[in-house]
Every structure is written in C-alpha cells, then in structure tokens.
Amino acid sequence: MAIIELRDISFRYGTGTPFEKQALQDICLSVEHGAFIGIIGHTGSGKSTLIRHFNGLLRPDSGQVLVNNEDIWKHPKQIRSIRFQIGLVFQYPETQIFADTVARDIAYGPKNMGLDQETINQRVREALSFVGLDDSYLDRNPFRLSGGEMRRVAIAGVMAMRPAILVLDEPTAGLDPEGCRNLFDHLEQYRRKTNTAIVMVSHSMEEIAEHVQRVLVLDKGRIVLEGSVPSVFAHAGILNQFGLDVPQITKALLGLKKKGYPVDTSAVTVDQAENELLRLFEGKDDE
Amino acid sequence: MTRDITVGQFLPGQSLLHRLDPRTKIVLTLVFIIQVFVSKSALSLCFLIVLLGVLIACSHVPAKKVFRAVRPMIPVIIFTALINIFYVSGNPVFHYSFIRITDQGLFIGFTLFVRLTALIAGCSLITYTTSLNQLAAGLEQLLAPLKRFHFPVNELSMTLSITLRFLPTIAEELDRIIDAQKARGADLSSANLYKKVHAYFPIILPLFMSAFRRAFELTNAIECRCYQGGIGRTKMNVLRLSRLDYQAIVFFCVAFGLSIAFNLYFPTFF
Ligand SMILES: Nc1ncnc2c1ncn2[C@@H]1O[C@H](COP(=O)(O)OP(=O)(O)O)[C@@H](O)[C@H]1O
Ligand SMILES: [Mg+2]
C-alpha cells in the first residue's frame, strides 16, 4: 500500500496577482514503504514546490494528497499530525538549527509530537546514530560544528520524528565529495534499517543513478519522464531537451556507441559500466 | 505569505511623474505637504486637493491604488480629527453633559482629516512612481551639502541601499525557516501569547544567525573591494535634471504661488 499518493495536483503561486505562476500541473505520484525515489528537473521546474505538498505546507489548488488513503486536507486543523509522518528536510537544512546543544535541536520535532522525555532522549540518540554521529555530540554547540556535521544534525532532527517518508531537497548541495558519499551511505543504511521511504530532489545525475530506484523528471511543473533509473537515462535526448544531462559514465558509453562499438548503454553507474567494458574487451580477446 | 509584502510599492511606468528626477519629486512633495498644512484658506486647500487629483491622473497610478494606501490610515486620521473636534474651543454648536462641539472644532477636525489624507496620498504617489533605489539616490544627493558638517551622507545612503536590497532576501529566508520548523511540527497558531512567543523563537534565532552571516560575508566583500566610505566615489547613474524637471518646477512654483495668493487674499474659510 502506498504511504502517500498525489492525485492530479495543480498549484499556482500568487493567484489573482500580476505575478501569477503555474508551478505544478497534474502531478500524480505515489510512494511505497522503503522506496527510494529521485526527483530531477532544472531550476524552477517546481521540485521544491512539489515536496511542500507532501506534508501540507502548501495546499493544492486542485487534486488530492492522500496519506494512508486519507485526504490530508479533509481536516485542515490536523495537518500538523501529517508533518510527523512525512519528514521534510529543506535545502541547506543547517540554517534552521536554533538550539544551544545538538540534543536540544534534534529533540525539537519529537517534543512537538508531545512525546515524553525518555522517549525523546532515546529518539535523539537513535537519530544521531543514523547520521553517523556518536553520543559525544549530544551536548555540543551545533554552531561550532563543521558544515557537513551541522547538516547531518539537521537531518537527524527530522529522522527523530520517525517519519514514514523522509523527503530531502538537494541534501548534498554544497558538501564536498567525501561528505556526499558519507551522507548517502548513512541514508541508505537508515532506509534499510527502518524501511523508511526516501524521496530525494537532486541536481546530480550521478547521485540519482547511484542510489535511487525510481526517477521522476519535472519540467515546468509537469512530470515529463518517469521510471526506473536505466529507463529514464536511456532518453538522453529528451533529458537534454529539458536542460538535464545523463550521468557522465552513461555519456561515455553513448560516445563509444557512436564510434561504432557494440556497447550496451544502459549502464548508469561506474561499476555497471566497468562490467560492460570488460565484457566488451573480453569479447574482443576471444576473436 | 511574507513574500507578498513587497518592499515599497513602486509601479513601473513611463508617465510624466515616473520620468521626473527623484530630487524634484522629493522636494515638490515636501513643499506640497507643507502647503497643505499651512493653508488657512478653504480656497487654497481645495486648490491643492484638485492639484493632487491632477497629479494622480498624470501618474497613471489607478486611483484605487492610492485609496488603498490611504485606507489603513483612515481610523487614525478619523481619531485625530475627532479629538480636535472635541477639544478645540469656540462657539458651541452642540452641548451634552461633558461633550462640547464647537464650530471651530468642526472646522479644524474636518480640515485635519483632509490634510492628513492629502499627506498620505501625496507620499503614496511618490512611492508608487519612484523606485526605492531612485528615492535613495535622490535623498543622497539632496543631503550631499551636509557632508560639509561631517554628516556621513554616503555611509547613510549605502546603509539604506543595502537594507533595501536585502529586505526581500530576508523575507524569503523567513518563509523558508517558517516552513522548515513547521515541517518539524512547530505550532504557530496558538492563541496563548506566551506559547506564541515561545513558538517563534526557533524561527527568529536562525533568521538572525543568517542575517549576521550575510552581513559578515558582505562586509568582507565590501572590504575586498577597498571601500572606504564616500571618499572619491562616483556614481554609475548620475542624476540629471531634464527639461521636464524644469518645466515641473516652474509649473509647481506657479501653483504654489497661487495657493499662497489664495491664503493672502481669501484668508478665511468661507
Ligand atoms: N513563494 C513563491 N512565490 C511565487 N513564485 C514562486 C515561489 N516559490 C517558487 N516560485 C516559482 O515557482 C516555480 C517553481 O519553483 P521551485 O519549486 O522553487 O523550483 P525548483 O525547486 O525546481 O528550483 C519557479 O518558477 C519559481 O519562481
Ligand atoms: Mg528548489
């Protein structure tokens, strides 16, 4: 069963003003337990607007958002309870840190849920371990941490609510390659361990290719492509048309194919490409 | 949400008023307001109101917009006018226990209403037709003579333009932080004031942190460009009075002269 389902969502900003802007149009989408979904699209395509609909920060002009098969806008007063089930991590989440200790900042969400102190403490430790920080961080001043550590603390702050889906808006923006890899390792472990679905907005095709199971491509507020990673990246031409690219490794294989080598261009990660190339060369040796 | 609060209310356009130099507009608006407040004659006041109407028509700003600028101030204006009605002495026209209304009071109350309305309409007209950057540049040039008295005019205008530049950015930031904390279950709708203040803490604090961070970054950027105050700085867009400005100045001199003449020759209210 889907945790969340979006049915024909349309949304426009600034209705009735000169700045009116159709940001989303007829979006359909559903997320199952444990899924790992990537959303790509160039700047202004509506990615951030879309994920704000997941937990009721924005209300669609038309269409429905169903969480556990129930329309979240049926009881607008209870929208807060939805936010605990659908965890949203914004771009540069470290800028939302406000407390004087890491523990207190991570505890903000669970506290808003009305949990008792003991449960909160337990959740804080758990969330901190999910992002790969040990308990020595609990009493540290979050503003004295490195940028990467601050980001992980901020993500832990959402994980501590134990949402059924974790939605991240460009989680690796501004991190160094090491920090990116580290973050993904922990996200993947977290997903496996807790069966939490992850929806990730990203600019990096390599990240998407490497980690997610299903990709949505957004352009001007519409879903223009959708499917498994290889099937989406097989459409290099269409992606280019929407201002997007395929992973570099896929590009390299496409280049080889153009030169006349019989390669299978569906590889999207370095490992897959390595296998494919080895196969190709071994095939040659045989001749 | 907060993004709806645009800073200033400039409506881009090509009308006569839009094309005037900001300095001309600032000075003429000031003189207009002074006239509206010192005019003792009904004829003069009516004349000034007609003048304002003509200006609004020239500005291509919809009258509705001007009214919308005045509207939020109406309760304050009425309150001020009422106080004057009750407290000014003169010949009583209405008397009931401690309430005494005099003819003088009625006049003053009514004219105060007209004057304040004209003041706000006049100010809104200049902000509708002049971008904030232009206003800041105009103000800087008008204040330039004060440099002689070591008044930091350049620094002041620099501060002003930086503030104007960053207000929308900070409003956007505020939106984002509110959304982020709501996503963690922040309840901002509580009716309890104490709870409400408490709920806003996780929003205000990150907002300040980010404002300070931006300020430090900007300071560094400014210092790297060897900024040392206004010494020897020139402008990219130098303000120049055009023919239109001289025509406007002559027109207003005549208008204000007429208004003064009305005051001198028809000094009473009737
Ligand atoms: N608060 C807002 N008010 C008005 N327009 C907005 C607002 N936020 C985003 N937009 C517009 O909606 C479109 C989609 O924006 P967004 O969802 O932020 O795109 P993305 O995250 O894919 O870069 C853009 O054209 C943007 O200018
Ligand atoms: Mg975005």
UniProtKB/TrEMBL annotation, chain A:
CDD domains: ABC_cobalt_CbiO_domain1. Its EC number is 7.-.-.-. It comes from Sporolactobacillus shoreicorticis. Residues 4-245 form the ABC transporter domain. It is a peripheral membrane protein. SMART domains: AAA. Forms a stable energy-coupling factor (ECF) transporter complex composed of 2 membrane-embedded substrate-binding proteins (S component), 2 ATP-binding proteins (A component) and 2 transmembrane proteins (T component). It is an enzyme of class 7 (translocase). Its main location: membrane. NCBIfam families: ECF_ATPase_2. PANTHER family: ENERGY-COUPLING FACTOR TRANSPORTER ATP-BINDING PROTEIN ECFA2 (PTHR43553:SF27), HEAVY METAL TRANSPORTER (PTHR43553). Pfam families: ABC_tran. This is Energy-coupling factor transporter ATP-binding protein EcfA2. The lineage of its organism: Bacteria, Bacillati, Bacillota, Bacilli, Bacillales. It comes from the Bacteria. Belongs to the ABC transporter superfamily. Energy-coupling factor EcfA family. Keywords: ATP-binding, Cell membrane, Membrane, Nucleotide-binding, Translocase, Transport. The keyword Protease does not apply. ATP-binding (A) component of a common energy-coupling factor (ECF) ABC-transporter complex. It is found in: Cell membrane.
UniProtKB/TrEMBL annotation, chain B:
It holds the Pfam family CbiQ. It comes from the Bacteria. Keywords: Cell membrane, Membrane, Transmembrane, Transmembrane helix. CDD domains: EcfT. Signal peptide: none annotated. InterPro entries: ABC/ECF_trnsptr_transmembrane (IPR003339), ECF_transporter_component (IPR051611). It is found in: Membrane. It is a multi-pass membrane protein. The chain crosses the membrane at residues 26-57, 69-87, 107-128, 244-266. This is Energy-coupling factor transporter transmembrane component T family protein. It comes from Sporolactobacillus shoreicorticis.
